[in-house]
Amino acid sequence: MMNVHIGLNVKNLEESKEFYRKFFSMDPVKVKEGYVKFLTSEPNLNLTLTEVDRVEGNTINHLGVQVNSKEDVSLHKERLEKEGFFAKEELNTTCCYAIQDKFWVTDPDGNEWEYFYTKQDVDTKDGSPCCAS
After folding, report:
1. What global pTM score does this model have?
2. Looking at residue 23, what is its pLDDT?
3. CA distance linking residue 83 with residue 70, whole number of Å
């Protein structure tokens, strides 16, 4: 199995750990001083959080989870709203050369995450924040 690895710097480890616990609907697999690791199987992801004094700027455009259907988008949106997240929904939006259904949530350090389903490819890029330059 292959996992995508994302290492994020965070200002408040406890707050970020709780956000991602709810976001992935699972507990972390490792918690150490200044460090938390989540290992998910759907999607295959190794996400680590490292506490730092300052998080400046946002060098990441956004992060996302691509799912297999519009119904999957709705299921995850409902699940996260039950956890208290505000989810900004975009249906039939054109973004990154595709027509997609999606929603967005933002982690405690301002990183935007989307759950999305790609309906079809198109020849235009813009329409959603993920395509902003």
Report:
1. 0.76
2. 94
3. 20
